[in-house]
Amino acid sequence: MSEPGADRTGTLAPLVRDYLVLGLRLGRHVDGFVDCWFGDRAISARVAAEPPVSPLVLAAQARRLGAELAEAELDESRRRFLAAQLTAMAATADRLAGRERSFVVEVQDYFDVHIVLGDPDRYACLHDTMAELLPGPGDLGARLEAFYDRNAIPPDKLARAVRAVSDELRARARSLFGLPPSERVDYEVVRDRPWNAFNTYLGDFRSKVALNAESGRAIAALPTMVTHESYPGHHTDHCLKEAGLVRERGHDEQLISLVNTPQCLIAEGAGELAVAAILGEGWGAWTAEILSAEGIRSDGELVERVLAVFAQLLPARQDAAILLHDRGADPDEVLAFLRRWLLLPPDRAEHMMSFLTDPLWRAYTVTYIEGARLVRAWLGARPAGQPVADRYLALLREPVLPSDLQADLQDRVEVHPRERGPH
Predict the structure, then answer these.
(1) What is the C-alpha end-to-end distance of the chain, expressed in Å?
(2) What DSSP string runs through 268-319?
(3) For residue 97, what pLDDT band results from cuts at 50, 70 and 90?
């Protein structure tokens, strides 16, 4: 068993070492592309000291490594994982080099999924459902804003509330998923970020989670945030992969996590479904009870019901990205689209646009939408009698790809042709 952070240069398979170096070199061009790195400090120090490598050269290196995989002494699951990752990395390098492609093709190369526009008629029906949950006169968007205002947690109470929820979820996650005894998450509240929350995995089973104080429209739904970022989401995912894949099985490619790769789509999809894996129905009332002990009021059951409907509207974010980047829509049109279907006030729509137009994050919304869609279907297709948590655990322990889940779902349809999909 080897410890992260030590100089293990001589123990890495050559192709895996080249893959890690390629990821770090791409990170020199795009701040934030390396989501986490807990590998050999000697490697990252050498990359940091060298002159930046041309994106054209990096694209060629990614394709060369992909071609060499067939001869690599790695098991099939590792070769498939690395092939998908290298395809995504080549696409990133191409874009850095000015080689443009359609947004839909870019997304396919990044995330191993194909995206299409959603159905506005479905969004309209969901608006009707939301109106039933939030009755009263006036604009539905204004009623939703008032609901969020009633359930918002002030920034000065956010860290304490998150810690209270996190401590409870940590105990559950340890029981269900077998976390290492030394694992730890530290939280901090930040401002002026394009995201709601962000996990930075530090290695040695430790994470730092930043919470955006300005994002708090639905902040009272703390389990959806803490489960996504920590228990049993990103932090738990990294811990179990470090413990099992890296330390026990030598899958050193897991020492790095890279934005805009299939690895991220599975991680974000699992994060979106983490609340179902650890709490299931009733998490709203569960949260309200914890927050009440902290002197914070929440409409727990209603929060859960409203957010369940709102989650079904979120594909409109992906539609907005397609309209903006693939259909030539004017930014003002896209803002109006977001405001209409996601019931957003102007400032929230502009905040969302900042994510969709950020050079690094513009395609990333796909990971939440398609990742959640795919993971939800796969969890729903579990064998009869299998707990959701047991099915979910496979996502945390193995180097799963979107195409793996898609193939598994297709096999199930072929074996059970009369079934209408997962429940």
Answers:
(1) 41
(2) HHHHHTHHHHHT-TTHHHHHHHHHHHTT----HHHHHHHHHHHHHHTHHHHH
(3) very high
